[in-house]
Amino acid sequence: MAEASRAIVVGASLAGVRGAEALRREGHRGPITVVGEEPHPPYDRPPLSKRVLTGEARPDGLALPMHRGLDLTWRLGCRAAGLDLAARAVVLASGERLPFDRLLIATGTRARPWPDAGEAALAGVHTIRNRDDAARLRAALAAGPARVLIVGAGFIGCEAASACRTIGLPVTLVDPNPAPLASVLGTRVGSVVQGLLRQAGVDYRPGTRVAALEGDASGRVRAARLAGGGTVAAEVVVAALGAVRNTEWLAGAGVAADAGGVSCDGDCRVLDTHGQPVAGVVAAGDVARFPHPLAQDGPVAFEHWGHAVEQAEHAARTLAGRSDGHGPYAAMPAFWSSQFDVNIKSVGLTNGADAVAVTQGSLAERRFVAVYGRAGRTVAAVSFDSTRWLPAYAARIEAGDAFPPIVGATDQGRFAPADPGFPTRPART
Prior knowledge:
By secondary structure, the protein is α/β, with parallel strands linked by helices. 20% of the residues lie in helices and 28% in strands. The chain has three domains: 7-110 and 244-319, 3-Layer(bba) Sandwich (FAD/NAD(P)-binding domain); 113-241, FAD/NAD(P)-binding domain, CATH 3.50.50; 341-399, Enolase-like, domain 1, CATH 3.30.390. The termini are far apart. Residues 335-401 form the Reductase C-terminal domain.
């Protein structure tokens, strides 16, 4: 790579930072500019829905550790508004154009907003995605609201509910699906999370939709009107409705990008609208949609911490021309969540699983490993406070072993595969 080569990283969060570090490590000696929409230096996001909400961590105390001597130019508080491939330039919202020879797209996601803009603007309605979101919500919780309503029982919603109960706040959690985390874990394992919610005192209401949020004359939220009748009084509402991938700035740029992400090949090279790689342009992290050997239904995009790091490093190797011999990006998907004093970890992909078996421990004890199968092959494993077996299952998943892959282990009781109970079409709040 020529020393004069100019690299731009659009996105100043985990994938962008680790990608910039990897570029230097792979020998890039030219200038590297990191563009970030937020004004804050890069920080870690997982604590935002956990320790920040309980007050155990400060929003401004989550800085990502970075290597010294990287010689990066930071353009924080600058939003990318367009990409001019012909001129090889990133266009900022200010109209400024930043020329590049190499480009890493790592713009990630943002919280899906409450669908009604007028209701979303009511004081007391929150989302959780960035540092400022978490700071505002923490202040609202510290004020001691009479009740918090959380809409959406995915990971963010359940973690926020856990944080609220940790600090003693009454909380109602509503979700249209039959069990929390049903779209990821299925209702069989999701029922364990349901038990945790109710044991902690959460007013959990499955199969429930919010028809509208209602405010008072001062413009502050006071209640949620439920579809089918009834209301929930609440002074704070948290919309935990999932994420939106930040791809709008790429409209008209000639790359394959839509609400599902930026399309890439196995080496993280961004594809154009004809499906061909764009020279010198890669993507990584939450925004990147790519083929993975475990994803049988087409390209996927992951929102996992470890994935953002590993894919950013792979993308940097591609930009530096050093991807030969590494093969396409195929790191094992993995995630973790901490809620209600339980550590949940997963490897593989549960998508499309047609069977699940509890191979260690038991659902009743809430300490177990559940293994998922699809068409006779092992595709994922999830542990609740029981991580010892996960590396072994990860190896079996990678090898495409038959389901269930490990039998007769010393700590294994009798088990029978069952229907995981995934919703036919995961409901959206």
